[in-house]
Write a structure and sequence with these properties.
Strand order of the largest sheet: 3-2-1-4-5
Oligomer: single chain
Shape: globular
Radius of gyration: 13 Å
Helix content: 40-55%
């Protein structure tokens, strides 16, 4: 199962996701794509992961991913302080992958009906959802 983690800015959420996914699902093939080199470098510290940086890496990664995970801003053009390009947002949105999005308020996108959970609670919930997807797909 191919899991694509996309993050920007400092890559802290992505690093935590890579670490948690690596520990909980050791057979998953994880690729980390940062919108900048700092984010990519930080995500690489999270565990055994293939990594790349930038718009084209995100577009190409979205083509073959089974699951895409990251902050909800990866689906919104110009979010993450402008780091998500329109092409990146479209690639995520049009991908056939299942998307597991972390509803962080820092992305300037609020999701009605989502309680204000801590980041660690949001990440734990995301991992539970990834686990359910992996079980379902065998």
């Amino acid at each position: 199962m191919k899991i694509l983690v996309i993050d920007g800015q400092g890559g802290n959420i992505g690093r935590q996701l890579v670490k948690m996914i690596s520990e909980r699902f050791p057979s998953a093939e994880i690729t980390a794509v940062g919108t900048n080199s700092i984010a990519t470098s930080n995500m690489m510290k999270g565990g055994q992961v293939s990594a790349a940086t930038g718009e084209n890496a995100a577009v190409v990664g979205c083509r073959s991913a089974d699951i895409i995970v990251g902050p909800i801003g990866i689906t919104v053009a110009d979010s993450l302080l402008g780091e998500i390009t329109p092409k990146m947002a479209v690639a995520v949105g049009q991908s056939n992958a299942v998307k597991v999005l972390i509803p962080l308020n820092r992305c300037e996108t609020l999701v009605a009906g989502v309680s204000n959970m801590s980041t660690s609670m949001l990440l734990d919930d995301a991992l539970d959802k990834i686990g359910a997807i992996l079980e379902e797909k065998g």
